[in-house]
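pinned: reference chain
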Amino acid sequence: MKARCSNPRNPGYRYYGQRGIRVCKRWSSFKIFLKDMGEKPGPGYSIERIDNAGNYEPQNCKWANRVEQANNTRGNRRLTVDGETLTTAEWGRRFGVSAARIYRRLSNGWAPAEAVKTPPLKKGKRRCHKATTL
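pinned: its structure tokens
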């Protein structure tokens, strides 16, 4: 966290420090950081910024697992369906549709609700059939 925000030689610096992301001065002491954040809940958790454009500071950080962190990246596409906003991956998990399929459907002009709620077809089936005349 500190290195990627303050060390230009750190591989992650361009995504953090170069974008202006900082670690609050209060957290220069690990003891205070620990007081603010508490112990890490488990081995699969790491520090996450709630607003990923904001700084590392008590009101903007929490412990999160990998799935939570993956849903909070700049590269995610968020969709609002029935008044609820989730990432394509979250919608996909909810309705059993891959995020890639949702992206393709949206690119093909599907409405967001259709793209996330329509289950995938079984192999070899087609959703739309053109009428043919002999």
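why pinned: Residues 129-134 have pLDDT under 50 and may be disordered. The first strand starts at residue 45 and ends at 49.
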